[in-house]
Amino acid sequence: MAWLQLKIDSSAENAESIGEMLSANGAQAVTFLDAKDTPIYEPKPGEVILWPDTQVVGLFDASDDMNAILSRLSKAKLLGKDFRYKLDPLEDKDWEREWMDNFHPMQFGERLWICPSWREVPDPDAVNVMLDPGLAFGTGTHPTTALCLRWLDGEDLSGKTVVDFGCGSGILALAALKLGAAKVIGIDIDPQALQASMENARRNQVEDRLSVYLPEDQPSLEADVVMANILSGPLLELRPVIRDYCRVGGKLVMSGILAELTPRIEEAYAQEFELDPSAIDGEWARVSGTRAR
What we know:
Elements: E1 3-11, H1 12-24, E2 29-34, E3 53-61, H2 66-74, E4 85-90, H3 95-101, E5 106-108, E6 112-115, E7 127-130, H4 143-153, E8 161-165, H5 171-178, E9 183-187, H6 191-203, E10 210-213, E11 223-229, H7 232-237, H8 239-245, E12 246-258, H9 262-269, E13 273-275, E14 279-281, E15 284-291
Parallel strand pairs: 6-7, 8-9, 8-11, 9-10, 11-12
Antiparallel strand pairs: 1-3, 1-4, 2-3, 5-6, 12-15, 13-15, 14-15
Helix pairs in contact: 4-5
């Protein structure tokens, strides 16, 4: 099937309304793009923040009457008859195959590999986590996840109890289980993340050692290892909660931290943790340590 992309420049304030208009006029999908390379950091959980200059992109079937659609859009008060747009043909491709081709097995540290199910495992004797990109965040491609995976690969997790705080796809939980953890407790505010974590655990045949909870249902426990790959804001706000999951002598690893905010996280957690040297990967950082008291 051939497609057309209709691109309209907008402000953050009007972007969602314009997207709704495109959907009402037959767009098969609507996406929002950064029109001027303006970074946005630290959205709160569940919060949608758009760029000050946002490009709204609607995907239309090439057989749609675009003249009629553009005429209707020009009558909307939000746009007006002189609104600026760009209409481009989109090459007809096997988009699913192209998407799949972008994901390859990835190695983290010496032992650990993350492998999509449609690829051959590079090293059958390695610690292989089978994980496909899905609804929840975390496939190993983002530096924050990679930082945590490399840390896990260097740890002895044999027989340990681990908490994955903000488990997302379950990638860190699965890696910990494959690396020898006795059990992992995954916690996330998103029910879809919990579902994804358990589905991925079943695919890796470790579901009997993974338990998942919403924050309001999370159990009281002290773990040997606590992982929190979230954002620096929640890491600061939830410090008492994260701390209490970690037993004295237990280990903590955190990421999702902008490198420039690393000193704030270190200062907050140094009160009760002996911290390791923080690791930096591009714009992102990992902070880890051992609970001292």
